[in-house]
Structures are given as C-alpha cells and as structure tokens.
Amino acid sequence: MGWLTRALRNDGVLKGFGKRTLVTWDDEIVLVTGGSRGIGGLLAETLALRHVNVVVLDLVPPEIENGNINFYKCDVSDLDQVKNVAKEIIEDVGHPTILVNNAGILRGKTILDGSEEDIQETINTNLLSSFWTTKVFLPNMIENNHGHIVTIASILGYTGIAQTADYCASKAGLISFHDSLRFELKMRYNAPKIRTTLVCPGHMGTGLFDGVVVTMPFLTPCLPPLDLVKLIITALDRNEGREIYIPYFTYLTPLLRAGPGFLFDLATRYSGAHSSMKTWTDKRKLLEIKKTE
C-alpha cells in the first residue's frame, strides 16, 4: 500500500493518478544543515557532483571542496544566527527551494549522568533547529507553492533505548514535526505542491554511533550512508514526498510500538538495543585526549 500512500500524499501526482513533474535541478537551491560530515556531508557532496547548487550550514567546513557547495558557518540551534545567515544566503545564492534538516548530535549519557547542558544542546540541535530553519525558509516556498522539506529523524524516534533518552526524544519530536508540517502545508497554507519527506534510518555507518555493538546484527545491520543518500535523492528527483525507512525491517517498528507492550519489550531486549551503547565511543573525548598528548 506504500504506492497508494505516496500517491495521496503527493496529490495523486504519480503514475496512474496524474502527471508527474520531475525536478529541474538548474532551478533548485538545496540547503543542508549539518552538511559537512556524515549523511548530510555525503548528500551535499553527491548533489554537488551532479552540479546542483548546495548550501551547507554547519560549525565546521565540509571535508571536500566543490565549487557548487556554498558553506556558511552557523549554529542552527540559535534562531538569531539562522536569521542572520539567511540574509547572506539569499543575497549570495538565492532562496533555498529544498531544505534538508539533518543537523544532529549524540551525547550518549543516561538521564542522570547527562548534564543540563548536554540535554539542552541535544534538543536544541536535533529538534529546535528544524523549527528555526523552517520558520525562516518556508515562507518563500509557500509564496511560490514550490519546495521540498526533508526531515532526518531516526528509527529511535519510535523507541527509546538506554543511554540515549535525549537523542530519542529529539527524534520523536522530529517525526511529529514532520506530520504537523505536512498537514499545515495542505490545510492551513494551501501549498500542496511543497513536498515533505521523513527519513527514519536504522544503524548507519556515519561515525555517530561508533563502537556500538548489537547482539543481532542481521536485524540491525550497520549500513553504508550512500544507501540512504540514494533514497533521499530519488525522492527529490521525482519531486515526491516520502517516508524512508532503512533497512526495510524498520518499517515494522511503528507497528511493533502500536502492539502489545510485552512484544515491544521483548523485541528491544533480545535485539541487544539497551546494552548496545555501553561500548559507544565518544569522539569528543578522543579529540580532547589527542590535544593533550
């Protein structure tokens, strides 16, 4: 039934329902938050290699140099910084037509061990930044009834696991943010041609979850980020709002969550999810150690 859901959410603009309008990349400007590393970095790099005009917002420059990537240093958790950098972007490059809310951090601490600053920084970066960038860049999309907003959440938005409470809570918030945005565009702003895509990956080999060990890797395999990037670009290419779950079994997680509680508890327990973070590697500490050597 996935094809029917996509058809209805894209106003019937799929084969058999209406005429599909593919994206003309010459007319698009893609803004990626957290676009210097990880999934965001690979997405920005891949689009730039296709000669797409890309804007990256991050605290550090991208790892690659490409004339199609325009980097702006910005803490996207700070609304004032987002507003100020938006003026520069619009003047230098133009109005972004595709917004990829990707910025995310992981502190990997229990609720009691996590400091107030850790928790606040995680919620601000992972969740509130999507509100700020959307508030700033969505009005122009609504004015033109054209655009695409991609929300990078996580399958952990459907299930909390030990030692990631703030991260899971922020990703759960992003899932609800995506749903509310989708309905507001159609029901409040009369902008049905603005697409929205929700991305809920499982364990990806981006470095964010370095050191994590799972007891059933066949259920929770660590996948290469390029697999996910290809799916995102396909949705953008086809101008389709989608919900992307990878690997495929992650489609079952929302259903499992809606089922009997004991089944959900058994599944998370025997998958090793709650012990997986015990071996997680905090890259910030590694950098601090290297600086003191």
UniProtKB/TrEMBL annotation:
It is found in: Membrane. The keyword Lipid metabolism applies. Its main location: membrane. One of its GO terms (molecular function) is all-trans-retinol dehydrogenase (NADP+) activity. One of its GO terms (cellular component) is membrane. It is a multi-pass membrane protein. Pfam families: adh_short. Gene3D superfamilies: NAD(P)-binding Rossmann-like Domain (3.40.50.720). Keywords: Lipid metabolism, Membrane, NADP, Oxidoreductase, Transmembrane, Transmembrane helix. The keyword Zinc does not apply. Belongs to the short-chain dehydrogenases/reductases (SDR) family. Catalyzes the reduction of all-trans-retinal to all-trans-retinol in the presence of NADPH. This is Short-chain dehydrogenase/reductase 3.
